[in-house]
Design goal:
This protein is α/β, with parallel strands linked by helices. It has two domains: about 1-85, GMP Synthetase, Chain A, domain 3 (2-Layer Sandwich); about 105-350, P-loop containing nucleotide triphosphate hydrolases (Rossmann fold, 3-Layer(aba) Sandwich). The protein has 14 helices and 17 strands. The structure holds adenosine-5'-diphosphate. Adenosine-5'-diphosphate binds near residues 119, 275 and 317.
């Protein structure tokens, strides 16, 4: 109970308490990260907004709980009201490029060879991020074998052109662009060479009306050809996600792709191992039929985060073939749970890269306030867990 002569709590006291809450990913306290907004303290009634760095962060609930705990220690408070939102951080420098200033993060998804499930992983991760509340686009840049239209049941999909800009198609909450939507051209793709291919990708990136996106997932062709190179050199991107399989690890093909992006100074967000194990229907035991720990080994060797392992599941394959992604048809399956966990880890890594970038820009005295201001408009709201 608050007594008549209870001391008045000051804003400094509140901030001091909140300053003890550390974001486990960013390893910084939430006050200096600017996550506390609109703080109001009147007559020991406290109100503020906690603005998390992404709706998909794996630690969101933990941070929220920690905040409630430290504020609970201010026993003189009469009331406490917290609004929880998330604003995805900018993981790429937007002022260097003019065409894509509304896309906060660009994530290239790469693999050493074809058939490892790179497109499947790109699509389901994009849906998982979108389901968390983020605005997500998917660019199928696998010009030689665009499979995203089939996986989304959009074989007859097409894109409109308005005011010289491509309008992405919409599916399952995603903005989607694919070379596969240009049916005639896609048959000829195999004969296209370097400069033409690079030109097409640049157009898909820059001449598309993406509007505000928190994450753009770019499904790259396998290997180290013109398209991955063009993506790395055309615009600033947040980083590359590498998809491997246990067999892929054994044959060392993923390593080549990693090496190329490292040489180009593109950050590697981490590794996801696909088809990593099998879970028997109705059970939860993981059977590592191709051997365990391959993806982890690569991530340790190259000092990059291991972001998840996706089980082998016939539902993934039949869903891909029938245009119904498993994230939509079976969201409680072990595969969907694994995609969700990986998506959270990826979002967390993007926040870490964004925080690093912000620090670099600040140390160069290069922060652009107008960009920051405009980005608040695309704030996805998370659920408060009261
Ligand atoms: P990539 O883009 O690397 O060439 P795809 O995403 O097209 O690979 O996947 C190749 C095939 O493997 C597809 O038929 C797809 O449905 C299937 N597949 C991908 N991941 C899984 C998985 N985890 N379990 C079962 N089948 C999968």
């Amino acid at each position: 109970m608050n007594g008549l002569f209870d001391a008045m709590v000051g804003v400094d006291q509140v901030l001091e308490k909140l300053g003890t809450v550390i974001d486990p990913d960013l390893k910084q306290d939430i006050v200096s990260m600017g996550m506390i907004k609109d703080l109001e303290l009147n007559d020991n009634n406290l109100k503020f907004t906690l603005e998390l760095t992404t709706p998909a962060c794996p630690f969101n609930v933990e941070i929220e709980d920690d905040v409630r705990k430290v504020i609970g220690e201010l026993t003189e408070l009469k009331s406490f009201d917290m609004n929880v939102t998330a604003k995805v951080m900018e993981g790429r420098s937007l002022d260097e490029d003019t065409g894509m200033a509304t896309v906060k993060n660009i994530i290239g998804v790469a693999s050493g060879k074809g058939g490892v499930g790179k497109s499947t992983v790109s699509l389901n991760l994009a849906i998982a991020l979108s389901q968390s509340g983020a605005k997500v686009g998917l660019l199928d840049a696998d010009i030689y074998g665009p499979s995203i239209p089939l996986m989304l049941g959009m074989k007859d999909g097409y894109m409109e052109v308005e005011e010289n800009k491509l309008q992405p198609a919409e599916s399952n909450g995603l903005k989607v662009v694919s070379f596969g939507f240009f049916a005639e051209q896609s048959h000829q793709a195999a004969i296209y060479r370097g400069p033409i291919i690079s030109g097409i990708l640049k157009q898909f990136l820059v001449d598309t009306n993406w509007s505000d996106l928190d994450y753009l997932i770019v499904d790259l062709p396998p290997g180290t050809g013109d398209i991955p190179l063009t993506l790395a050199q055309t615009i600033p991107i947040t980083g590359i996600l590498v998809v491997t399989t246990p067999q892929d690890v054994a044959s060392n093909v993923a390593v080549k792709a990693i090496g190329m992006f490292e040489k180009l100074n593109v950050p590697i967000i981490g590794v996801v191992e696909n088809m990593s194990h099998f879970v028997c229907p109705g059970g939860d035991e993981k059977h590592y039929i191709f051997g365990q720990g391959g993806g982890k080994k690569i991530s340790e060797q190259y000092k990059m985060p291991f972001l998840g392992e996706i089980p082998l599941n016939s539902g993934i394959m039949s869903g891909s073939d029938s245009g119904k992604p498993i994230m939509m048809t079976d969201p409680d399956s072990p595969s969907a749970i694994a995609f969700r966990a990986s998506a959270k880890n990826i979002a967390a890594q993007c926040s870490i890269l964004a925080a690093k970038l912000q620090q670099e820009m600040e140390s160069e005295g290069n922060t652009d306030d107008s960009t920051k201001e405009s980005s608040t408009e695309s704030t996805p709201e998370t659920q408060t867990s009261n």
